[in-house]
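so i finally got all the pieces together for this one. its two components total, 1347 residues if u count the protein bits. some of the lines might not be protein, just check the labels. i wanna see the whole assembly predicted at once instead of chain by chain like last time, that was a mess tbh
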Amino acid sequence: MADREERRFAEVSRDSVKLMAESTGVDLPDDVAALLAEDVCYRLREAAQTGSQFMRHAKRRKLTVEDLNRALRWSRVEAVCGYGAQDTLPFRSVKEGELFFVEDREINLIELALATNIPKGCAETMVRVNVAYLDGKGSVEPQGTVPSAVQTLSDDLHKYYQQITRAILGEDPHLMKVKSVSHDLEQLNRLLHMVKSLVQNPYLYLGSYVRSLVSSVMYCILEPLAASINPLNDHWTLRDYAALLLSHIFWTHGDLVSGLYHQILLSLQKVLSDPVRPLCSHYGAVVGLHALGWKAVERVLFPHLPAYWANLQAVLDDYSVSNAQVKADGHKVYGAILVAVERLLKMKALSLSQSADGGSTAPSGSVAGSMGYRVSSPGLSPPSEPLSEAVLGIASHLQAGGAGCPWEEWSPVPLPAMYSELYSFFGDSLAVRFSTGPGFGSYRPCTPACFREPRKEPLGPLANPDTARKMPQLTANLNISPREDGSPRTDPPPPSLAATGAGRSSSSRPGQRSTGLSRDVFPKARFISPQSGPPAFSFVIGGRQMGRRCQGRRPFQTTFASTSSLPTNPPRAYAHKLPVIGRVGKPVRRWTCSHYSLYLPL
Amino acid sequence: MAAVQGGMVDAKDEADIKTEPASDGFGNNHANDSRLLSESPGSSAAAGNSKPAAGAPEDQQTLLAVLQFLRKNKLSESAEILRREAGLPEEVLDPKGADSAGSGLGGSADVDGGDASALLSRVTVPAPGGAKAPTKAGEDQPDVNVVLSAYSQQGDPALYQVYYNGLKKFIESVLDCHRAELSQVFYPLFVHMYLELVYNNHESEAKAFFERFSGDQECYYEDDLRILSGLTKKEHMRGNETLLDFRTSKFVLRISRDSYQLLKRHLQERQNNQIWNIIQEHLYIDIFDGMPRSKSQIDAMSGSLAGEAKREANKAKVYYGLLKEPEIELPLDDEDEEAENEEGKPKKKKPKKDSAGSKSKKQDPNAPSQTRIPLPELKDSDKLDKIMYMKESTKRIRLGPDNLPSICFYTFLNAYQGLTAVDVTDDSSLIAGGFADSTVRVWSVTPKKLRKVKTAADLNLIDKESDDVLERIMDDKTASESKCLYGHTGPVYGISFSPDRNYLLSSSEDGSVRLWSLLTFTCLVGYKGHNYPVWDTQFSPYGYYFVSGGHDRVARLWATDHHQPLRIFAGHLADVTCSRFHPNANYVATGSSDRAIRLWDVLTGNCVRILTGHKGPVHALAFSPNGKFLASGATDGRVLLWDIGHGLMVGELKGHTDTIYSLRFSRDGEILASGSMDNTVRLWDATKAFDDLETDDFTAATGHIHLQDNSQELLLGTYMTKSTPVIHLHFTRRNLLLAAGAYNP
């Protein structure tokens, strides 16, 4: 009752009436306009009321223009033509005048008439039947928790749905055969939307099912789907959407499963560091990381970038026709990485400036409240509860703690160093897109000149600055690996580090080098412990080398590292796996000969 | 169409004369004459000063008004007949009141022509004429003026608030037991006072009055209040349906004698003439002896546009029993194997007589006589179908709370929001959809495809003596899964298959009902008469007859071989939104936007039940298979259960959150299924709902019901769909539940 006061009718004001009268050349006195306005309001309401009757009988919830027109017609009033579209017409507003109007775009009739992509006719109206409920089953359980999206699905989709439902709800793990049917993007999209509705359902306590959900989503992000082979299939969108969903799940339900974040990161990292996987999987990993926030990018993508970059470079520089598809995929990955690192830089700069302003001595993770969770959770501890579904196909996309891929020792890299490293990859395309780019000039001098400047000189010409679009032909990477044992994190590196993680750790980070000075500038630098060993300096040169039986690029790598300081880091490189990107069929061993390593004590 | 056993058609003229008001009216004159008067333009004088007059003169005046009207419309013959029947002297036909009002009714008189027109026009005029057409407003004006003229007498507008407030104070101060009953007066009083203010051009006072007291009204009147609040000018009152409804029908209140005496004494003591006048003029107070009713009892029954039903209105005897099934030679139950063998060639007749099939041999005392309504004779094919039906029913699943039906959902894909009606044949072999784009589509849901009959030339070549002639006449070239029927010029709001599956009815916004042949897939007849959108239509369970109801506020009974309606059921105060046949075909139930349900006798055309209690337009009706009960669903999301014999509400099922568009009892009546706009199907335990009834004599006599709030116990299941409003439900002969709707992405 109380809200009856507010629920007044829409009214046509006197001014509107006058305006309309003027537009037809009639000058109305005020009192006439007021009377008219009142009458117009009444007639409008009358028409709306009659129109709503047509709506009710058409068994719709939405009042359409057609309904109103019928009401007008039965009242012997001319119908309003031109608004018969079934879709809602978007209202646009003009801020200044508080004017709302339906956008009426001009249509180029010529273009329309000569258009070659003639839309197909509407699909035939049809009836489809399916058994929605057998013997009233399901009535015992609370129906509200199960999205009964069954009716409109075809038979096989219905089965599929049931499987998914059961899989997600954990009724029968053996029915979780998503893989068998899931190379259809359409179905996967459906799956994702269902996951989304599950996640968004505020009345549904997902509990530990979050893990299953996440693994399903991860599947969509990472799996090299059969559908990806056909370039016409837009599996990219699927991956993007899945990535968004992943972050959404994580932020809303991350607290339900401990260690989830690390599992996700681990699996993404594993995919990223596995050159055998096709580029679309890599793309998925990158967007996944991106979606999880800049911290994730910093933590996983950034350390892997040097290694990964060379692989990507190779693909991008291969201009052969047979490579075209892979190359296109490569560009996609390149774009994704670029977006990710740009955000990383931006956010990092922001966080630094904030933490600097606040005088906070806390580690960088405290900038955003939500980040606190991640930082506070023990970085290296394996998930407390092992994956119950680890045996299942999908769940394999979630790394069980420490099983496949080691959780690498990680320490933050100061911003300037990061920037310069990234710059070395992306060249001007990074600077151009990074809006705060110029601002970083001020940071650069902070880096130790003695070390930095000499390197900058050769870097300049090496990094290809000419165009943003073009990949750098030759990249140089200056890295100094931080000391693992010097990290504040005390967990020992997993034993498998040497085996799998070597390629990564050999491409070390420039953090060490800049530590000394930047610590004063950025409180965050405190996080990095004083180095205890000689810095390793790795130098990667990717260049076109016309060798025997190599079409296109054959990169080679030069690693400079101190032999003494890196006992656990055999100078193994990823290079031997490199060309396999996107060409899984090729033998791997052939390329090992292109691997050269130099040890150069610094 | 099947032959009719005579009678009905011949009786048409007589019956037309006897349509609702004539019979309904003489019983309760007091209520009816105000409507009669107001609707007949010649009676403006009478309307002004005749209110407290006794029964007999009023009757006469009514008749005079009708006679005058007839004369004015040059229907002297009808007038003469009516005069003779009423036994009035000849001089009454003198055109003494010819100047009183113009006649805007010319057009409607020839719609139905002949004798019927007098009554028809009376019935149809206020409905279509009144509200819809501004261009016709000029013609209608005199009529409406008559209607409104009662408001011309007025008190001091400034005192209205004082009067109303005084009454409010009084009612708040009376004993609790009377308060709920007397509170019923508020709403009609409020509306009439407000309208009086508006009518007399006291706009600001009216607004202030509305502002002050609209909040006190019951929430279920909100829709009407919204309309009222928009109405602030006398000009707007012309042509406003709600307003006409208020004036033309007396708002009915049921109040115990004690409470009424209290009110009367109060008003007379205070000399509160204004309010007393309104109560006298515009309200009908149905006084009963006994305990005042409680608030919940009142709330359960109120909500209708015209208040509650008068008790007399529901007194007539209703033969709700089922007709005896015709005896059909049926394969014996104990010869199951043989029956199975028969299935392949069911045409062969069994020579044996069977006693098992005629279990309904004993005449139900509550059933109408077999020939009360002439019904078409059974054809051979009908008998075959009955046999099939009985065979199927032996395999029927017995449903119950522990044995719920499986649900099959028929989803209409790519309907683009255009699906407006669905029907399924009784044997569940065909499904039809009516669409907003004016088409009707029929699908076969069995592997058997739809075929047309061959052309006449080809039919000549067929050997008519052959056994499979019925098969031979079909043209295999035309076989397809679905057929589309074009002919309507507006959205198709109602469709119905004939029981023999040879015909399909469709009703549309274009004002017509069309009969389609499912053998040729062409339109056979267009039944015109409604002139306004026809919201619903349904075949009688025995075929041949059908009923339709529409925006013109009347339901019509038709026979397929007559282009004019056989009966016009008039009485609803707003659109007839749905209409259903009773299983014995002797009655028709109609639901309306006036939030009431009426049951009509097909034979006499009388309204035999008025069921009030819904708080929104009624959109779904279903009779229980035994004919005893009626279920109704409305936009308020509630299902109400009614005992037809007693005319009582016996249950209220709450659960749906949106309009209920379909209701269906299972074949044995144990389960009630309801489908709604809220994308759910709900199953209710009908057995329990009806078994728990204790309809003692007192309740039956007073109509005071005690509803238990046991919806949750009765709800057996809620089944969601995905974005698919459920607009049709159907139980197959084996009790599988079919639901249908259009996917609405």
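Chain B has 26 helices and 31 strands.
Chain B touches chain A through 77 residues (CB under 8 Å).
anyway lmk what u think
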